[in-house]
Amino acid sequence: MTQSQFTPRVFSGIKPSGGLTLGNYLGAIKRFVGMQGAMETMYCVVDLHAITVWQDPKELSHATREVAAGYLAAGLDPSQSILFNQSRVSAHAELGWIFNCVARVGWMNRMTQFKDKAGSNAEKVSLGLYAYPSLMAADILLYHATQVPVGEDQKQHVELTRDIAAKFNHDYKTDFFPMTEPVIDGPATRVMNLRDGSKKMSKSGESDMERINMRDGADLIAKKFKKAKTDPEPLPDTLDGLKGRPEARNLVDIYAALSDTTSEAVITEYAGAGWGRFKPALADLAVDRLAPISDEMTRLMDDPAEIDRILADGAERARKIAEPILSRTYEIVGLLR
Ligand code: AMP
Ligand code: TRP
């Protein structure tokens, strides 16, 4: 097979570990919706990834449904995209094991996310946290996905996926797995922490004030933007003027992503504006975009059986794509089935 013979297919996923943030929305979900319809799209709630760090079982099932509700509320349509949770398709874990035997320890040692997460505690974190990029490669390659929309922080993991595919193809003298492309585009591929512009906005920061959660109410969103760290300067009239001002740049990028425009256009509109004008405008915009999604999530979460039905149906469709690919992989490796 040459690369062009792989059918275009999009795969991406989000971990159900805590609530969804504005970073997940702008860096992932909103972009997932944008790719829907143009080609086959599969969006997964990657529960097996969540348990690489401790998850309370009740909270895990709740968080899994909540990510699914976020997908649906933001506009992913189960008749256009395959929506499912990872653990329902056991082939992820099976291919993950094979890839653990393809990936090299030296490659894993270079993963910056692992180094950040493990920190000085590397001896005590789970083996799963260390191996997780190899499971992520399995998630993607199990469907021969050609494109993976993710935030900037996942770029290295998609590159590792390509390394695993290339080594598998080379070792087994085949061209079975595609060279998947990361899709990292738009103004908000790395939404930063509101209190420290050098850190990524994440689900698990120390203070809730450093992130916007998709389910925060209007007052809380306004308060968080009002208290967001900035500098005393007004907005410049070119993007160049934001160099060395990471917090200011972040708020401009968030505004651009929420209003479907570019950061340049936002700077042109707000050139010379002070924070007293820009921050309330940003808060209004965020509330305007997030409130309907959050309301819809609340409505969906009132009917967990319906979410479960959608995820089970998606898993069945996913399994149909995965099974022949996993079977062929076993055959290539020489495993008797
Ligand atoms: P996670 O919550 O770690 O499972 O991330 C799910 C998706 O959201 C991945 O594609 C991430 O790259 C993306 N994402 C998470 N946080 C951010 C952020 N602060 N900025 C942009 N994208 C993000
Ligand atoms: N590792 C990703 C994250 O932490 C989540 C993820 C798991 C993923 N499998 C994936 C993303 C496959 C894209 C494709 O954000």
Entry keywords:
337 residues; binds adenosine monophosphate; binds tryptophan; Tyrosyl-Transfer RNA Synthetase; 3-stranded parallel β-sheet; single chain; 7% strand; mainly alpha
What would you say this structure looks like, in words?
The protein is mostly helical and 337 residues long. The chain folds into two domains: 218 residues, Rossmann fold; 91 residues, Tyrosyl-Transfer RNA Synthetase (Orthogonal Bundle). Helix content is 53%, strand content 7%. It is built from 13 helices and five strands. Strands 1-2-3 form a three-stranded parallel beta sheet. The protein has a two-stranded parallel sheet with strand order 4-5. Helix 10 crosses helix 11. The longest helix is centred in the C-terminal third of the chain and has 30 residues. It is globular. The two termini are 24 Å apart. The model has no long low-confidence stretch (mean pLDDT 96). Bound molecules: adenosine monophosphate (AMP) and tryptophan. The site of tryptophan has 13 residues, from strand 1 and helix 7.
